[in-house]
Design a protein that fits this description.
Layout lengths: L2 E2 L26 E7 L3 E8 L17 H12 L9 E8 L7 E3 L4 E4 L5 E4 L1 E3 L4 E3 L6 E2 L3 E3 L12 E2 L4 E9 L19 E9 L3 E7 L6 E5 L4 E9 L2 H7 L4 E6 L5 E2 L4 E2 L3 E2 L10 E2 L3 E5 L4 E3 L2 E4 L14 E3 L3 E3 L5 E8 L13 E2 L1 E2 L8 E3 L8 H11 L6
Parallel strand pairs: 1-16
Antiparallel strand pairs: 2-15, 2-17, 3-14, 4-15, 5-11, 6-7, 6-10, 8-9, 11-12, 13-14, 16-17, 18-28, 18-31, 19-20, 21-22, 23-28, 24-27, 25-26, 29-30
Length: 395
Amino acid sequence: MSINSNSSATITESPSPCETKSKTPPPSFAHLVTIEPLGLLYGSAGRFLSPENLVGRSGSSFPPSAATLSGIFAAELGGDNIKNLQLAGPFWGKVDELPDFYVPTPLNYLIEKGTSKIKHKLSWNAVEKQWLPNVNEKFEKGGWVKVHDWGKDWKIWEISTKVPWKTVSHLHPRLEENQRRVQVEENREQGSLFLENGVQLDPDYCLVYLSNTEIKPGWYRFGGEGHLVNIECQPISGELKHLLSKPVGKAFALITPAVWGSNRHSYRKPMVQKKEDRKSDGFEAWECDTLLTERPFPFRYRLGNRKDEETNEKVNSKEKLLSRGRYAVPAGSVYVLEKPLESSWQEWDEKWFPTEGVSFKRWGCGLALPLPSAIAQNSEQETANISETLPIGGN
């Protein structure tokens, strides 16, 4: 098999979104992209070692976002062939259970501490304006559920609270390109030795991403340190295709992180910019009744080459442009809207998503699945009954 390098495509910046209806959406998801490492995967890189800092470590970030996989598609297919590319992830699954795989559990499902069982299901009561039942306990965090269980009774959901990978810290030398010796920095007599947080994935499992574009199977360099992985592509199941095409309705859960807002600010909901006022952050795209979420986390990526200050032309360099720091709403967050959305995520307007180089919708930003069980069964009926009993003009 040939080994392909992971590099980012040079993409010109898209024009600002406008009030007109967006263009026809790209093709819907049709493929599962599975990634199996040939050794360690990249978690995060620690700071360079020095006499003052012998054991520096930075925070870990794993699994890699869909933006990382987008770089492989750009290098393999070329810039013109990825205009309609759409990816989503990260997820994971057991190799012999595909095309079924695990996605983040909605946050209104509370997993009993020390087990893999759902103890409580929170439902939004529109009358009392609160999540019920009220519980005051500690629960497991970061649960995963099989995507084929999504539309079934939550009492039979197969939940996993453990992930099939672990972090392995090891010293990582940066070698010279033409010889096996530690690279010496310019004007310095010490080598570039640093501590890397590698990730070891269980050999029976793989990382999973959704894609609307097929990629040639083979070995690729994937992640910040270019570790080798084996990438395969297979069709998604008919059950999942049907689920992804359903309108999200009045209540839905995110299965991928969501970055909303403008290029300057991050919000919890999409913001639509007014055509006549480009300096404002716009107005909310959804009338949100409530949101069940956790603390946001930083999101950044590298894309494209730097421009020469004199010629204003892009220079092919290993150092890619670093995006503006953003904050993402974590996967598993549950939205309950005042009015239902009669469209699936695939049909959502592209102007709801931030654009920085490319639209964040390319990377499956805020991929959502319907979750009608998040609304209390009697809350809507009770609200209707209360309005009927009120006298005309009364309070």
